[in-house]
Amino acid sequence: QAKRMGGDRVEPFRPAFKTVGSGRLELESDLRRAFARRELSLAFQPIVRIATGEIAGFEALLRWEHPKRGMVSPAEFIPIAETSGLIVQLGQFALDEAVRRLSDWQRLPGRANLTVSVNISSRQLIRQDLVNDVKAVTKRYGLKPQTLKLELTESMVMDNPERSSQLLDKLRELGVGLSLDDFGTGYSSLSYLMRFPFDTLKIDQSFLAPDSQPQRPIIVQSIVSMANELGLSVVAEGVQTQEDVKRLKAMKCEYAQSFMFAPPLAPEEARRLLQERHQTLPKAS
Ligand code: C2E
Ligand code: MG
Ligand code: MG
Ligand code: MG
């Protein structure tokens, strides 16, 4: 079995592509052309400060509008980009575009400290010269590095702990934030992960699903308490009910990101939202 992420192994042939006549290879060559055809863009999902309902920042999420297939999910094309090496180009595009948009939005009144979070995949960590790319992009757009956050998952850090640790230390030296994405889906302990210089923890949405097991709230509570003790910011991903938002607020979970507050938005919509009102999203009472 191929490793889920990273490593240098070639993935085994997987015949299970849903759409007839457009297999992985076709999608890969389409993805190569997608840049030139301007089919790739970023959507921006608000990350909300639970106590006030304010937008603290956005997560930048890649979108691919395929001419025939319509929107292709990143869950489908990111793995293809990773095995084909296209992820480096994709990652550079996402980083540049996210920082470009953010630097524009930060000029809006009261928005100077708005953040943007950019997902980084394991192949990028291995191949892309992230440290120099981050340095260059923040300089290019005159961005305060603290307002840029990179999201990494525990599995990619655990795949290559030594190299990750070195790289993450260098990124922290530049001043950028580091978020641990999808926390709780891997098998590593928080205490082990704290050897790496993360400043934010994103609790995976599976812990906040309404049909989740009865012990889940206790797990969420203990993750939040531990993170707070360690001085980490916490983002609850995919929270779905007002009840849960209240609970999160009571446990001092500072941020939430979910369809309940706002879906990923086109950049123009995100900008409009920032301009319209200061507090735009439903406040947890
Ligand atoms: P992620 O980084 O964990 O991003 C959050 C995902 O959860 C997004 O899916 C978002 O649309 C979705 N989401 C947000 N709120 C809710 C909610 O209330 N309910 C549910 N069910 N889902 C919610 P999306 O945009 O489809 O992205 C999927 C994954 O693809 C991301 O998960 C990330 O791992 C990857 N990805 C997306 N953009 C990039 C990128 O630029 N680079 C890399 N390397 N990976 C990316
Ligand atoms: Mg993410
Ligand atoms: Mg996530
Ligand atoms: Mg995820």
TrEMBL record:
Residues 24-278 form the EAL domain. It comes from the Bacteria. This is Bifunctional diguanylate cyclase/phosphodiesterase. Coiled coil: none annotated.
